[in-house]
Amino acid sequence: MKIRTSAALILLISLPIVAQSGGDTDIALDILINGNSDGIQIRPGEEIRVSFLSVNEGPADVDLLVIGATGLIRNFSFPFDADCPGFVVGQGRGVDPSDYIIVWQISPLLVNQTLDCQFSLRALSVVDASETIEIRYLSSFTDPDPSDDEASFEITFLPALPEALPVPALSLLAQTFLVLGFLILVAVGIPKRYFV
After folding, report:
1. What class does CATH assign to 2-157?
2. How many CB atoms lie under 10 A from the CB of residue 150?
3. For the chain, what are the domain ranges?
4. Which of 1, 16, 58, 90 could bond to 9 as cystine, CB 3.0-4.6 Å?
5. Radius of gyration, CA atoms only, the chain
6. Taking the model in full, what pTM does it have?
7. Per-residue pLDDT reduced to its tens digit, 163-180
Protein backbone atom coordinates (compact mmCIF):
# COMPACT_ATOMS: atom_id res chain seq x y z
CA MET A 1 0.00 0.00 0.00
CA LYS A 2 1.34 3.42 -0.96
CA ILE A 3 0.42 6.88 0.21
CA ARG A 4 0.65 9.62 -2.35
CA THR A 5 -0.23 13.28 -2.46
CA SER A 6 0.11 14.18 -6.09
CA ALA A 7 -1.68 15.76 -9.01
CA ALA A 8 -1.35 12.42 -10.83
CA LEU A 9 -3.57 10.71 -8.27
CA ILE A 10 -6.22 13.42 -8.53
CA LEU A 11 -6.10 13.11 -12.32
CA LEU A 12 -6.49 9.35 -12.02
CA ILE A 13 -9.64 9.80 -9.98
CA SER A 14 -11.16 12.57 -12.08
CA LEU A 15 -10.86 10.77 -15.43
CA PRO A 16 -12.72 7.62 -16.47
CA ILE A 17 -10.49 4.62 -17.09
CA VAL A 18 -11.24 2.13 -19.81
CA ALA A 19 -11.52 -1.44 -18.59
CA GLN A 20 -10.22 -4.00 -21.03
CA SER A 21 -12.63 -6.90 -21.16
CA GLY A 22 -14.09 -9.42 -23.54
CA GLY A 23 -17.41 -7.56 -23.51
CA ASP A 24 -19.99 -6.10 -21.16
CA THR A 25 -19.93 -7.59 -17.69
CA ASP A 26 -21.62 -7.10 -14.32
CA ILE A 27 -19.36 -5.82 -11.54
CA ALA A 28 -20.83 -5.75 -8.02
CA LEU A 29 -19.26 -3.70 -5.21
CA ASP A 30 -19.87 -3.88 -1.48
CA ILE A 31 -18.43 -2.60 1.80
CA LEU A 32 -18.26 -4.59 5.03
CA ILE A 33 -17.09 -3.16 8.33
CA ASN A 34 -16.32 -5.55 11.15
CA GLY A 35 -17.92 -8.26 9.03
CA ASN A 36 -21.33 -6.65 8.52
CA SER A 37 -22.96 -4.33 6.03
CA ASP A 38 -25.05 -2.29 8.48
CA GLY A 39 -24.06 1.07 9.94
CA ILE A 40 -21.97 1.01 13.09
CA GLN A 41 -21.17 3.24 16.04
CA ILE A 42 -17.62 3.64 17.34
CA ARG A 43 -15.76 5.70 19.93
CA PRO A 44 -12.32 7.32 19.84
CA GLY A 45 -9.55 4.77 20.10
CA GLU A 46 -11.63 1.90 18.74
CA GLU A 47 -10.51 0.08 15.60
CA ILE A 48 -12.61 -1.10 12.69
CA ARG A 49 -11.81 -3.62 9.96
CA VAL A 50 -12.92 -2.45 6.51
CA SER A 51 -13.46 -4.78 3.54
CA PHE A 52 -13.97 -3.61 -0.03
CA LEU A 53 -15.53 -6.41 -2.08
CA SER A 54 -15.48 -6.57 -5.86
CA VAL A 55 -17.31 -9.39 -7.66
CA ASN A 56 -17.33 -10.12 -11.38
CA GLU A 57 -20.74 -11.69 -12.00
CA GLY A 58 -20.00 -12.17 -15.70
CA PRO A 59 -20.23 -12.89 -18.47
CA ALA A 60 -16.76 -11.49 -19.36
CA ASP A 61 -13.38 -11.23 -17.66
CA VAL A 62 -12.03 -7.78 -16.87
CA ASP A 63 -8.32 -7.20 -17.44
CA LEU A 64 -8.22 -3.93 -15.49
CA LEU A 65 -10.70 -2.51 -13.00
CA VAL A 66 -10.13 0.69 -11.03
CA ILE A 67 -12.22 1.41 -7.92
CA GLY A 68 -12.31 4.73 -6.09
CA ALA A 69 -13.35 5.35 -2.48
CA THR A 70 -14.01 8.59 -0.62
CA GLY A 71 -15.39 9.64 2.74
CA LEU A 72 -12.42 8.77 4.95
CA ILE A 73 -11.74 12.06 6.70
CA ARG A 74 -10.48 13.57 9.95
CA ASN A 75 -11.94 11.01 12.34
CA PHE A 76 -9.42 8.29 11.44
CA SER A 77 -5.71 7.85 11.94
CA PHE A 78 -3.55 7.77 8.80
CA PRO A 79 -1.51 6.18 7.31
CA PHE A 80 -2.76 2.61 7.44
CA ASP A 81 -1.85 -0.70 5.85
CA ALA A 82 -3.89 -2.74 3.37
CA ASP A 83 -3.28 -6.37 2.44
CA CYS A 84 -4.15 -6.08 -1.25
CA PRO A 85 -2.05 -5.13 -4.30
CA GLY A 86 -2.85 -2.05 -6.35
CA PHE A 87 -4.05 -0.09 -3.29
CA VAL A 88 -3.14 3.61 -3.24
CA VAL A 89 -4.13 6.27 -0.70
CA GLY A 90 -3.87 9.96 -1.53
CA GLN A 91 -4.66 13.05 0.49
CA GLY A 92 -7.25 15.36 -1.03
CA ARG A 93 -6.43 18.83 -2.26
CA GLY A 94 -9.98 20.07 -2.69
CA VAL A 95 -12.41 21.75 -0.32
CA ASP A 96 -11.34 19.52 2.56
CA PRO A 97 -7.61 18.67 2.38
CA SER A 98 -8.03 16.18 5.22
CA ASP A 99 -10.17 13.97 2.98
CA TYR A 100 -8.34 10.81 1.93
CA ILE A 101 -9.01 9.22 -1.45
CA ILE A 102 -8.45 5.53 -2.09
CA VAL A 103 -7.80 4.00 -5.49
CA TRP A 104 -7.80 0.20 -5.84
CA GLN A 105 -6.55 -1.16 -9.17
CA ILE A 106 -7.51 -4.77 -9.88
CA SER A 107 -5.90 -6.70 -12.69
CA PRO A 108 -7.47 -9.00 -13.70
CA LEU A 109 -10.94 -9.74 -12.30
CA LEU A 110 -12.18 -13.00 -13.77
CA VAL A 111 -15.79 -14.17 -14.15
CA ASN A 112 -17.20 -15.39 -10.79
CA GLN A 113 -14.12 -14.10 -8.98
CA THR A 114 -14.45 -12.14 -5.74
CA LEU A 115 -11.61 -9.96 -4.47
CA ASP A 116 -11.57 -8.68 -0.90
CA CYS A 117 -9.35 -5.73 0.03
CA GLN A 118 -9.07 -5.35 3.81
CA PHE A 119 -7.54 -2.70 6.04
CA SER A 120 -7.92 -1.42 9.60
CA LEU A 121 -8.69 2.11 10.75
CA ARG A 122 -8.45 3.55 14.25
CA ALA A 123 -10.86 6.31 15.26
CA LEU A 124 -9.48 9.57 16.59
CA SER A 125 -11.24 12.14 18.73
CA VAL A 126 -14.63 13.01 17.26
CA VAL A 127 -14.64 15.82 14.71
CA ASP A 128 -17.70 14.90 12.66
CA ALA A 129 -20.75 13.15 14.08
CA SER A 130 -20.81 10.72 11.17
CA GLU A 131 -19.02 9.74 7.97
CA THR A 132 -20.17 7.83 4.92
CA ILE A 133 -17.59 5.73 3.10
CA GLU A 134 -18.47 5.36 -0.58
CA ILE A 135 -16.91 3.23 -3.30
CA ARG A 136 -17.57 3.06 -7.04
CA TYR A 137 -15.65 1.82 -10.03
CA LEU A 138 -13.94 4.40 -12.19
CA SER A 139 -13.49 2.14 -15.20
CA SER A 140 -15.62 3.01 -18.19
CA PHE A 141 -17.57 0.08 -19.61
CA THR A 142 -21.16 -1.04 -19.92
CA ASP A 143 -22.55 -2.84 -16.89
CA PRO A 144 -25.85 -4.68 -17.55
CA ASP A 145 -26.83 -4.22 -13.89
CA PRO A 146 -25.78 -0.74 -12.69
CA SER A 147 -27.73 -1.08 -9.42
CA ASP A 148 -24.68 -2.55 -7.64
CA ASP A 149 -21.98 -0.33 -9.17
CA GLU A 150 -21.69 1.71 -5.96
CA ALA A 151 -21.74 0.93 -2.25
CA SER A 152 -21.71 3.03 0.91
CA PHE A 153 -21.44 2.54 4.65
CA GLU A 154 -22.33 5.01 7.41
CA ILE A 155 -20.24 5.28 10.56
CA THR A 156 -21.55 7.18 13.58
CA PHE A 157 -18.98 8.51 16.02
CA LEU A 158 -19.82 8.60 19.71
CA PRO A 159 -17.97 10.72 22.28
CA ALA A 160 -15.35 9.04 24.39
CA LEU A 161 -16.55 7.41 27.59
CA PRO A 162 -15.68 9.41 30.72
CA GLU A 163 -12.64 8.09 32.46
CA ALA A 164 -13.33 6.22 35.67
CA LEU A 165 -12.14 8.09 38.75
CA PRO A 166 -9.33 6.22 40.48
CA VAL A 167 -10.18 4.72 43.87
CA PRO A 168 -7.83 6.33 46.36
CA ALA A 169 -5.57 3.80 48.04
CA LEU A 170 -5.17 3.98 51.80
CA SER A 171 -1.69 4.91 52.90
CA LEU A 172 0.23 2.60 55.20
CA LEU A 173 -0.32 5.03 58.07
CA ALA A 174 -4.10 5.07 57.49
CA GLN A 175 -4.17 1.27 57.36
CA THR A 176 -2.24 1.14 60.65
CA PHE A 177 -4.73 3.45 62.35
CA LEU A 178 -7.65 1.33 61.12
CA VAL A 179 -6.10 -1.83 62.52
CA LEU A 180 -5.28 -0.16 65.83
CA GLY A 181 -8.82 1.21 66.07
CA PHE A 182 -10.28 -2.24 65.48
CA LEU A 183 -7.99 -3.77 68.11
CA ILE A 184 -9.02 -1.11 70.61
CA LEU A 185 -12.69 -1.84 70.00
CA VAL A 186 -12.04 -5.53 70.54
CA ALA A 187 -10.10 -4.79 73.73
CA VAL A 188 -12.76 -2.59 75.30
CA GLY A 189 -15.56 -4.76 74.03
CA ILE A 190 -17.87 -4.12 71.08
CA PRO A 191 -21.52 -3.66 72.10
CA LYS A 192 -23.57 -6.76 71.32
CA ARG A 193 -26.07 -4.77 69.24
CA TYR A 194 -23.54 -4.64 66.39
CA PHE A 195 -23.72 -8.42 66.09
CA VAL A 196 -27.52 -8.79 66.18
Report:
1. mainly beta
2. 13
3. 2-157
4. 90
5. 28
6. 0.70
7. 765 656 667 776 776 777
